[in-house]
Amino acid sequence: MNFTIRHARSCDCEHIMRLIMELAVYENMSEQVKITSKELERDGFSNHTFFKCLVAEVPEEHQTKEGHTIVGYCLYFYTYSTWEGCVIYMEDLYVMPEFRGNGIGKAMMCRIAQIGRQSECVRLQFSVLNWNKPSIEFYKSHGALDLTEKEGWHAMRFEVAAMEKLAQMTGATEHKNS
Amino acid sequence: MNFTIRHARSCDCEHIMRLIMELAVYENMSEQVKITSKELERDGFSNHTFFKCLVAEVPEEHQTKEGHTIVGYCLYFYTYSTWEGCVIYMEDLYVMPEFRGNGIGKAMMCRIAQIGRQSECVRLQFSVLNWNKPSIEFYKSHGALDLTEKEGWHAMRFEVAAMEKLAQMTGATEHKNS
Known about the structure:
Two copies of one chain form a homodimer. Chain A is about 35% helix and about 30% strand. Chain A is built from seven helices and seven strands; from the N terminus they run E-H-H-E-E-E-H-E-H-E-H-E-H-H. Chain A has a five-stranded mixed β-sheet with strand order 1-2-3-4-5, with helices on both faces.
């Protein structure tokens, strides 16, 4: 099957949003999705952007029964390692189930690796859920290391309420303007 | 003990580099540190910056026996969640052992939470090593969630050699310009 990998445009956000939701449903975490396509437009396609995104598009003759031709996406941004320097971070990589097995996911991952190397990134990082064995095997077969398994790294998070509490602590305020 | 938390300047990079190395030694991973203070200057203080950094400074009367007054740092950047939006990511938080117990680490963490909320970030994320129990307890006592424990997230990485191999795959090249 022919397909095209290209950089997302602002007008693709509704489709990216549709695929974000599909991925979250697959990960059994759809209740955590709070974002809207309008926010994606603002955060990815305005003056100050927080991410970049690739989309995978198929020709019209292969469109889904709902008429969609955008069948996959890969959202990424740059982070930094104080040990090695610039890192490209793949936040999401998703292909609709009916379009899998055509090399679309692999082609997007390869593009991210190319973009990363062109930007002198020395790592391509991402996260997976430990029960998602097919994905883990796919990534490992291409040389990915599981850092949680190998070195014991855990992902930690403060959510809004905890952030607000921290932000209001005296320790921070006292030294805010010093 | 008095101390000041302020944004790092280009001329602080040698001190930040010294502290990055101290933290890596503490984490038993000093052999992974490839970066230099010149690269930190370029990557954090030029036109296109990949990170921001706070430093903790003590008055001269409290300087270390080597004469240092910069005794801690917190390096951060912005990432993005496709479920919730903007995220502030704390890559490193470190205070020299002899200056711990004065609230310096907590003050830096509070500042990051403030900066994050001012930038409308809905999460403050970071990673810890699973054997680093004092740090995990410290973060959890302030409301941090361990996402690896709770949801099963694993941190994954392609390093340079694997990235190069991916980047050269036909799948990606074929669709590069389409």
